[in-house]
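Weekend entry, working from home. Most of the wet-lab plans are on hold until the incubator is repaired, so I used the time to fold the two sequences that have been sitting in the queue since the last round of cloning. Logging both here for the record. First:
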Amino acid sequence: MYQVTAILIGAGLRGAKAYATYAKEYPANFRIKAVAEPNDVRRESFAKEYEISDEFCFKDYKEVLERPKFADCVLVCTQDHEHFEPVMLALRKGYHVLCEKPMSVEREEMLLMEKAAAEYDRVLSVCHVLRYSPFFKKIKSLLQEEIIGKLINIRHTENVGFWHYAHSFVRGNWRNKELSCPIIMAKCCHDLDILLWLAGSRCSKIQSFGDLTFFRTDNAPNEAPKYCMDGCPHMESCPYYAPRFYLEHPKAVEDKLIYAVSEEIDSDRVMEKLASGPYGRCVFYCDNNVCDHQIVNIEFENGVRADFTMSAFSKECFREILLMGTKGQIWGNMEKGEIIVDDFVSGSRTNIQVHTPEGGHSGSDTAMMREFTALIANDGKGIRTTDVSVSVDSHLMALAAEESRQYAKIIDFREFRGRTS
């Protein structure tokens, strides 16, 4: 099989620890040829790990994209508000592009990226990795078999996990919508994309409610300091006490969250970072402003209706879904790989256990990279799980949901997107 070569722009957690690792798992199919990363430690560490010579290491993505085209594709894994320019430059240069979600935080930029992909006849794939999971692929196939008759309603829940929410959306990079984007975009455009896919139709109307209720200064306990390590009297009773989480909670290592705190993960270095760094802050004294819970109601053009709930207040991170049809229902838990099909006619129940591979998003990251590299090996010709126009829809649905939440109104999505037909 042809080996696809890539340029990685942004060697952070998603770029370096999720997508680039495909080159290690399948070196005959995929190779990282160059890296652009402003952080010296990350860039040098990545270059050493992937045996990239100095001439192909860059601080600025503009440097690498100014050169004549020397690879097949570009992986854009920068921060949310930094995707637009490298994607556009890469498309103009003739590269196929894989872009981390969200593709942009601005409506106009999304539409320009969609237009550019068509104009330059290049693949622009957005990392909606859930479509590639064995779990959701199985549910999609059951719907296509009409095993529950005509689909009427979908009820979908994303339980973010109290610890994951505190790490990413209170202390972390996605805590402030002015610096990143609303949480319904940053965390949930995956879910809106899945609802689009399962409903098999475009959105017609959308409505949303939500707020930041708990992680606020007015909820800080008495005498709580600004940093956990500054003698907090509540350290034994607080589930968000940073040193205990980053050094003892298994998820900090399993999900590689500890690397956000420090590149060097020995306990002394981590404690040093927590003493004054962003991940050591009290969760009630951060500059966060994104919702800690939100619900979205969606009407699709084919009459299917869905409700989606996102909440920070769960013990585990997991997605749960219920699809209700005229002849039966499908219930599932993605992380457990469990699907239950109930038949209204016979009264029978079928339990399906879907194999859940190890790795990011229950193996979805690897599956997505497999399909992307196969597509690029064929110069973008072939069957795609999704194309950029569908990704634009799911992103715009997130923006429409946020507008609905802020202004307490129902959004006509066709009008919001600017379509004329």
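Second, folded right after the first finished:
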Amino acid sequence: MSNLTGLNTAAGPNPNKSFEVVQPPTDSVSSLSFSPKGNYLVATSWDNQVRCWEIARTGPTVASMPKASTSHDQPVLCSAWKDDGTTVFSGGCDKQVKMWPLMSGGQPVTVAMHDAPVKEVAWIPEMNLLVTGSWDKTLRYWDTRQSTPVHTQQLPDRCYALTVRHPLMVVGTADRNLIVFNLQNPQTEFKRITSPLKYQTRCVAAFPDQQGFLVGSIEGRVGVHHLDDAQQSKNFTFKFHREGSEIYSVNSLNFHPIHHTFATAGSDGAFNFWDKDSKQRLKAMSRCPQPIPCSTFNNDGSIFAYSVCYDWSKGAENHNPATAKTYIFLHLPQESEVKGKPRIGTSGRK
């Protein structure tokens, strides 16, 4: 362990020379969400807080200014923006989802409840509904003007991950279940798949064209899965976020909003950019000294936000409050890092 500490000190917390967000949370970050309408970044944290910063980009530099914050009674696990960029939804260990009219300066109100912590939340603009996934093994759809869910969908196990690209929604649960929904018929499972990965699902991301999804697991592996049976030959898995015999979790998968390449981030402290169509890694960034539990692109893909902090994967006994500072960094992707490469026959290697 002493070697690792020495390495961390030498590398510093920011080996990629990203821009540091000011006044970060006091505990680990659980989710990051950019407004769909502007450069406002929201972070939820284990310190029970939901924070928002205004991010201002001027040429090659980026500045962050704290805008507002609100709190839950217990750690907050997830966040999502309404499509008009006015409102933030946040859910967590207090078993509720709050709707925060951030841009109008209003107070948060509780709009959804579960019987266990809320792990995932997403706004579905095409349906004008909020969807929430919980460790109580249910998925619930909410009209935010009503106190009871429009529909409760039983899941086979605890909800761990959720992704929506209407009409496609994919839910990852415990026991490696991946449940696919067609939101034009949201009360029926469209397809249930056992994850192509051998270990616990950590994250999912729907393809921008809604034809499939990515799934990431605790074993440093990503599966690329197409829904159409005729496209199954295009399915593959690949492994990374590994260092010798050490295997790290893939914590975050984000598609670039313009180029439709994707980013992965993991507990090894690395983030990478990939092109699934040519099966190539576009860019590998330097490893940070702590895990990256979450990440996200802004609405035009010009800013990639990622948090660097302890992810609790090695338990409380490996948490040292003296050294485990929480960071949120902003990386400005070069086009070469996120623009897909043309396919060259079958020789494209990852």
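Plan for Monday: verify the second prediction. Residues 1 and 147 are 51 Å apart (CA to CA).
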